Each structure stands twice: as structure tokens, then as C-alpha cells.
Amino acid sequence: MKIVLLDAKTLGEDLDLSALKELGELEIYQTTAYNETLERIQEADVVITNKVVLDQAIMSHTPRLKLICIAATGMNNVDVEFAATQNIIVKNVAGYSTNSVVQHTFAMLFYLLQQMSYYPQVAFNGAWHGSKIFTDISKPFYEISGKQWGIIGLGAIGQEVAKIASAFGADVVYYSTSGKNCDHDYPKVELNELLSMCDIISIHAPLNDQTQYLLNAHNLTLLKPNAILLNLGRGGIIHEGDLAMILDQKEIYAGLDVLEKEPIEPTHPLLKIRKNERLLITPHIAWTSKEARAKLLKGVVNNIKTFI
Known about the structure:
Helix 5 packs across helix 8. This protein is an alpha/beta fold and 308 residues long. The protein contains twelve helices and eleven strands. The chain has two domains: 2-96 and 290-307, NAD(P)-binding Rossmann-like Domain (Rossmann fold, 3-Layer(aba) Sandwich), CATH 3.40.50; 98-281, NAD(P)-binding Rossmann-like Domain (Rossmann fold, 3-Layer(aba) Sandwich), CATH 3.40.50.720. The strands form two sheets. The protein has a six-stranded parallel β-sheet with strand order 7-6-8-9-10-11, with helices on both faces.
């Protein structure tokens, strides 16, 4: 059986792929452009992809292909409906990154909440020494306890964030992007109410017709002064041009692990804001803890074993 891994670089060079090699003839590509895909998988029985697109134009010319393993939870890079017409099984891996994404949510929050971009500079540039006092409270920070935390998308990750936020003493409310997720212990509110009442807002929703540009110039203005907005869901849920404008107009803070187009373009409006201390961008790494990637690989291996 021929197995082709199209974008191994997205899984990390530190990941041991020997378990895949035991399942068949493994061909590994670090990255694959769309125009390279067909040639590389034309004789494959199994294809593993993280972000490489497999659409009808590709799958129409892969007579041996029987299984597509998506090395992720999201399946939007594969035309699943067409695959079914070709008797190609498509399998993803769910739940592998929950702990990693939750941890990164709080890492981003603490960085912004506690003004962590400022304090290392005070130590290294001599400002602390020059102040002649033992402390520096020129950049006040706040506690999570007693704050209102709004969660957009209360799925598995959102529920874990809610649990930990509650342990810190936050009062949690949520907005259901589907309108169907209503059976929870936390109060369900409408989006505008959540945006206007919450001190901390974190997004853990998928990108779909209901969430495309869910946050935009019309409702971002509702955010409270000093509110912190975190997107750990998908790029495109926030209109990034509108967010850039609001960050310069109003004292709010934002942490983004996902963008509409990745990697970020040098001309992106968020890279041009004047108040860049109000923004933290990380390059889509929330899912990438060592443990999460190991679980992901194990899930892919199990999917192939089940198929066999």
C-alpha cells in the first residue's frame, strides 16, 4: 500500500513518523503546492494532508485512492461530497488539541491582561533601576476573578475554557453560533449583549456561513474599554480590517492565533496599527503542543489501521 504524506512540515520535524512507515510504502513531502498535488498522489492508496487542498479536479484522476486522512479536525480542505461519489473514505482526527488550545487561550490572555510586553523592557532598558523604587505600577493589570467572560462557540474547547475561567472566579456567559447549543450550565446570551457586557471574550467556533465576519465594524464598537478579545477559532470570524481600525480608535486588546489568510501578508492592516501594544498575534500555534501533535499522529495511524 502506498501512503503519501503531503505536508509533513506542518506536523513538525520533531515528530517520529516511524509508525506510518510500518503501514506501507511511505512517501513524504515537506510541503506541497496545489499544482504539485496530482502528480504526487496519482498512484497513492492513502493520502495524508493537513492543509493541502484535495478537490474534485484532483480526485477525478486518482484511481487508486481509497483513503484520505486529514491530519486535523477541520475537513474544509477536502471535497468530502465528491470523495463519497468516488468511494474514497475521508477521516479526520477530533479532540486531539483541546488541552493545547485551552492552554494557549490562557497564555494569550495573561500576556495581554498583565501587560507582559511592557515589563521585560523595564528590566532590560534600565528603567526599573532608574526608578529607585522596588516596584513599577505604571501599567496596571487586572484579575480574572469577578470579570465577565464571554465565550463564542461552547463546544469541547469552549467548555474547557469556561471551566477554567470559572475556577479563576470569572462569570461565564456564552453565545451559540448555531443557535442550537443551549443545554449548558452557563447563561446563553445574544451576541451584542455578550460583546457589550464582557471583559474577556474568547472565540472557539468553526468558520461557516453563520460565523463569517461575525465580528465587524458594526458590533466591535460595542466592546467595553479595556476588553480583551481572543480568537482561537478560525480566521474570518473577525473582520480583520475592521478590528485594526477599532484597535487604534478604542482602548481594547486583541489576541489572534488565526487569521483569514495564513501566513500573514506583509501589507496586512493589523501590522500597521499605531497601538500595536494592544495586539498579540501568534502564527496558528494553539493546536501544536508536542502532546497534541503526538495524539494527532496516533489518530491518523489508527484511521489507517481501521481502514486496513
